[in-house]
Amino acid sequence: MADFSVSLKDKGEFRLPPEIADRYGYDAGQMVRVLPMAEGIFIPRGPERLRKVYLEATNQCNLDCRTCVRRNWEGPFGSMEMDTYEALMGQVSQISSLETIQFGGYGEPLLHPEIARMIRMAKEAGRKTELVTNGLLLDMALATALVEAHLDTIVFSLEGLSEETYASVRTGASFQQFREGIEILSRVKSQKRRVRPQIGLEFVAMKQNLPDLERLLSFAHEVEAIFVIVNNLLPTQRR
Hints:
Elements: H1 18-23, E1 35-37, E2 40-42, E3 52-55, H2 82-92, E4 100-103, H3 115-124, E5 128-133, H4 140-148, E6 153-158, H5 163-169, H6 175-191, E7 198-205, H7 213-222, E8 225-232
Parallel strand pairs: 3-4, 4-5, 5-6, 6-7, 7-8
Antiparallel strand pairs: 1-2
Helix pairs in contact: 3-4, 4-6
């Protein structure tokens, strides 16, 4: 980062440029800690501020994946009421540092009947929006609703790049259907001349799908994904 200069005012006061104060976590009127050092003075970063909220609109899912933690749950399944969400948005509007709301969790957010409205409300609150999905529920109507809600980023999760490896984890699901969901979204974006939502992929690596990793980047290029996340499988029970 380039150097910058500040001018001393009465009694040795100086002002940090607004973009510098924001970058290092300081708000107007906040006390700043200054550390004397042999070479001069040092101003450490301000306290960490809330930048991103992860919101689970529903913990229900259209799949029963063999590796999912939901298989070990005994609690109830359900979806967030809109009254609860609206109250949450009221709190969000008061957090100036909050930049992004991600819709995801252990459920499939596209199962929530008001997911497009939720995204639109978050955008109206001035926040970036992300959504993590298995993509199997995407049809023209739902893809259109997401695009028109101005969703910023959509992340498609998967565990394989062939019918065999994909279905070995996602019982009863089809890799072709997964790919068609991405293609439907891309078609809607093209028709409406939109560049968003940008597409990302999240791949859960395990022994049975490691060979597919070699083709992951080429597949990402084919579906116009701009980033790829590779996670390892997290054990949820002892064997």
